[in-house]
Specification:
- InterPro entries: YczE/YyaS-like (IPR038750).
- Keywords: Membrane, Transmembrane, Transmembrane helix.
- The relative contact order is 0.12.
- By secondary structure, the protein is mostly helical.
- Helix 2 runs parallel beside helix 5 and helix 4 packs across helix 5.
- It has one domain.
- Helices cover 81% and strands 0% of the residues.
């Protein structure tokens, strides 16, 4: 799990790089929701694949994986509960400190509500396939080592 630290820095640089390249504004509201829906799908798929294939997760997905394991919950349910809790904690802190909700918009709320649910969908559809890939890769790794 110590790999999370360097991978976090690398991912931060990659995100900054793409933020520079994809610097555009969308002013058409239906298109904003379409892009948000695509982002939620991509984020859910990436989180599901990273955690299921036992790759190096980002810190929040590592916490979700630990909560899922400790609480005997499906990954999607743990992600849903974690995200909603984080949004609620952020709202309480921002109300306490700033006397208004700061940093939580409709995209944040929709992401919290739907990423975990989409992970559940991916899990139902892809679990056996990904677990088979993981088992095969462990066999290849043991053979090489």
């Amino acid at each position: 799990m110590l790999l999370q630290i360097p991978f976090s820095y690398v991912m931060g640089y990659i995100i900054d790089f793409y933020n520079e390249i994809l610097d555009f504004q969308i002013n058409f509201l239906p298109l904003k929701f379409l892009v948000l829906a695509a982002a939620i799908l991509c984020t859910a798929l990436a989180a599901y694949v990273v955690v299921t294939m036992d790759l190096v997760p980002n810190p929040s997905d590592g916490v979700v994986r630990a909560l899922s394991y400790a609480g005997h919950l499906e990954l999607g349910k743990a992600k849903f509960r974690f995200d909603c809790t984080m949004v609620a904690v952020t709202a309480v802190i921002s109300l306490a400190v700033g006397h208004r909700i700061i940093g939580i918009g409709i995209g944040t709320v929709l992401s919290a509500l739907f990423i975990g649910r989409m992970i559940q969908v991916f899990s139902r559809r892809m679990d056996s396939c990904l677990k088979e890939i993981v088992e095969e890769s462990k066999g290849v790794y043991n053979f090489i080592v």
